[in-house]
Each structure stands twice: as structure tokens, then as C-alpha cells.
Design a protein that fits this description.
This protein is mainly alpha-helical. It has one domain (about 5-200, about 300-385). It has helices at about 5-20, 25-40, 45-55, 65-75, 80-105, 110-135, 140-155, 160-175, 180-200, 215-225, 230-245, 250-265, 270-305, 310-315, 315-345, 345-360, 365-385. The longest helix is centred in the last third of the chain and has 33 residues, at about 270-305. The radius of gyration is 21 Å and the shape is globular.
């Protein structure tokens, strides 16, 4: 497709803004993208958005960043991959600021009251996206049952990778019938087990260099970005195994501080790498670590993007893609419940969440404005009490 400079500027501007207001983790990021790019700007349909979401759940790396990269490519051709860089940039700069304060003063700036007002709004943003995406995703009773089952099993503590890969594989078995069953049974068992096993194998302790090395830093984060599936807790396990246990470059407390900054700042949680890189090697280390952990996502999406239309048009893989879409929504709903427990902690936050939901769902308010209102509420509430 022909790429215009205006479309590139539009892509860059939108994803820079989403990177600034993208609090709340991947589920919230995806919800913001859906409201901005599907509901408001009509860049793509809910069905196309769901296909992108489902497909990016099948590859390693930060899902919301990969969705951004993919949408940028859809909108502006291969140059639209800049969407991912624009989504990452604000978070990287903010996290570098926190890392500078951390190294200079031994602590990070206090933003607890800002998040007090923002978190309930994020819950409303995600709910709005779930309501919008559920209808096109629930194409039949089998898919509805899968979505409900994934949601319930996630809350019961079942591994999210098993749900994401095992559930759709089971649906494909049912849809494909007996002819495909012998070939797919092994995949249903092997795929959910092989990916975590690969990740563990690649992150096993090896040599333990005594001194900091930018090459080792780059390759370690490149490895993590290439194989990591799952939540922030999985990222924590990878980081601890490499930087605390294997390399001895960080203490457990430093690692927890890095993960905390990655979670409370807007944008991808993977910018935890930016913090670690800055602590270990200053600005060059921060830039190198950020590049390394996100680079695989750009490669994976560039490879996946031309295949997505074929996946949708194939009679074999289309049901699988539908099932992955529904499983991803089930996981997203489960994550929302978990987030809500942390965000809605008292009557004021419940009131903020309700007001945000009414504004977003009932009046289709701009999510950026509503998030800013939540932040202002948190600041004012802190000043008053």
C-alpha cells in the first residue's frame, strides 16, 4: 500500500499520545487502542482488531506493543512500524527519569496519589473495550463457552499459556473433526509445554561475568524479548534469573524497584529494562536494554503481518483464530477482575470507576480526558484529606 507522510504523522502522533496516557498494563493499553483507533478514528473494524489481538498473543513479547506495531503497519505500510517506537518512547523517557532519581537519591518520586485516581478509570476503559469486542468475537455457542471457561479458569489460577494455547487447540479439534484429531492431539499437549520449557532452557544459569558488559546486557535482554510469554510475573522471573542469580549485577531489592517503576509508569511494562539498563550503564545502558528487549517484537510482527489475511481466509486456521481471539478476551476479562481488586479500594475509587464507565460507555467520552480527570481527582483528594 502507498504510504503518505500525513498518515505516518498521524500514526506517530496517536501512538505518542497513547504512550503518555497508557497506564494500567497491557489490558488497559489494548482497551485504549480499541477506543481510539476502532471506535473513534475507524482505522479498522472490531473484527480486524480482534484478529490482530489474537495473532499477537501467539508470539513472544509485549502484546500491547505488538498490537501497536501491527496497527501502524496496517495504517501506513511498513513504515507504520514506527507506531511501536512512538508507543515505547514516552515510557522509556519517563522510566529513565525515575531511574535517574533512583541512582541520584536512592528513591523514586512519589506518584501514589496520581495512580489512586487513574486506576479506577483504567478499569472502566478496559470494560468499555470488552463490551465492544465481545459481540464480534462471540460468533457461536462454542466460542462463548470457551471465553467463559478461560475467564473462570484464569481466576482459578490456571496457567495463562495453557489457556491461551490449549483452549483454542481444543476448539480446533472439535471443529476439525476426527480427520484432524490424531495430528492435533500431540500439538494440544506439546505446544503449551514446549514454549515455557524453551524459555527455561534459554535462561538457565551459565557463566557468571564479574564486570558489567554492554554486550552481555544487550544479548540478555534480546533473549528475554525473544522468548517471553505471559504476565509481568513471568518477566520478573526471567529478570531475576539473569541479573540477580546468574550475573549478580542486581540485588533482589533493586530488581523489585525496577519492576515497580515499570508497572506504575505509563506504556509497556517491558520498560523495566530501561530502568535496569540505566542503573547498570547510565543512558547508554538504558537505550541498549530498551532496544534489545523490544527488537524481537518488531521482527515477529513484521513476519506475522502478511500472514494474518491467510490465517483468516483459511478454512482450517480461521476457527483457530476465532478461538484465540475469544481466549484472549477471556484472559483480558480475568486480568480486569484482578486489576479491579487493586484499583477500587474504597468508596471514592468506586465512585470514580462508576463515573468513568458512564462517561466512556454512555457518552463515549475521550479516554485521554477521562484519565486526566482521574489523575486530577487523585491529586485533589490527596490535598484535601
Amino acid at each position: 500500500m502507498k504510504t503518505s507522510r500525513s498518515s505516518l504523522r498521524e500514526v506517530a502522533a496517536v501512538f505518542l499520545r497513547l504512550g503518555v496516557i497508557g497506564f494500567g498494563g497491557p489490558a488497559a493499553h489494548i482497551a485504549l487502542m480499541r477506543q481510539e483507533l476502532v471506535a473513534r478514528k475507524h482505522w479498522l473494524s472490531d473484527e480486524h482488531f480482534l484478529d490482530i489481538l489474537g495473532a499477537t498473543n501467539l508470539i513472544p513479547g509485549p502484546n500491547s506493543t505488538e498490537v501497536a506495531i501491527h496497527i501502524g503497519a496496517v495504517r501506513a505500510g511498513w513504515r507504520g512500524l514506527v507506531a511501536g517506537a512512538c508507543f515505547i518512547l514516552p515510557a522509556m523517557l519517563i522510566v529513565m527519569g525515575f531511574a535517574w532519581a533512583y541512582t541520584a537519591y536512592g528513591s523514586t518520586p512519589e506518584i501514589r496519589w496520581l495512580l489512586y485516581g487513574i486506576k479506577p478509570v483504567i478499569i472502566a476503559v478496559v470494560l468499555q473495550a470488552l463490551f465492544g469486542l465481545a459481540r464480534p468475537a462471540a460468533k457461536n455457542l462454542l466460542l462463548v463457552a470457551l471465553g467463559v471457561a478461560v475467564f473462570a479458569l484464569y481466576l482459578a489460577g490456571v496457567n495463562e499459556l495453557l489457556l491461551l494455547f490449549g483452549g483454542p487447540a481444543l476448539v480446533l479439534l472439535i471443529v476439525g473433526g476426527r480427520r484432524l484429531a490424531p495430528r492435533l492431539r500431540s500439538a494440544v499437549v506439546a505446544l503449551p509445554l514446549a514454549l515455557p520449557a524453551l524459555a527455561v532452557a534459554l535462561s538457565n544459569p551459565v557463566a557468571k561475568p564479574a564486570d558489567y558488559s554492554s554486550g552481555t546486557l544487550f544479548l540478555t535482554f534480546l533473549k528475554i524479548g525473544s522468548v517471553l510469554y505471559g504476565s509481568g510475573y513471568v518477566l520478573l522471573a526471567f529478570l531475576r534469573n539473569d541479573f540477580v542469580v546468574r550475573l549478580h549485577w542486581l540485588t533482589d531489592q533493586q530488581l523489585l524497584d525496577a519492576v515497580a517503576v515499570g508497572q506504575v509508569t505509563p506504556g509497556p511494562v517491558f520498560t523495566t529494562a530501561t530502568f535496569i539498563g540505566f542503573v547498570l550503564g547510565g543512558v547508554p545502558g538504558a537505550l541498549l536494554a530498551t532496544l534489545a528487549i523490544f527488537l524481537p517484537s518488531f521482527v515477529f510482527v513484521a513476519l506475522l503481518q502478511p500472514l494474518l489475511p491467510r490465517l483468516r481466509s483459511s478454512t482450517l486456521t480461521a476457527p483457530l483464530l476465532d478461538a484465540v481471539n475469544v481466549a484472549a478476551l477471556g484472559l483480558m476479562a480475568g486480568v480486569t477482575v484482578t486489576l479491579a481488586r487493586d484499583a477500587i479500594v474504597d468508596a471514592p475509587t468506586a465512585l470514580v470507576a462508576t463515573a468513568a464507565a458512564v462517561s466512556l460507555i454512555g457518552f463515549r467520552a475521550n479516554s485521554a480526558v477521562v484519565i486526566a480527570g482521574g489523575a486530577l481527582f487523585g491529586i485533589v483528594y490527596r490535598a484535601v484529606i
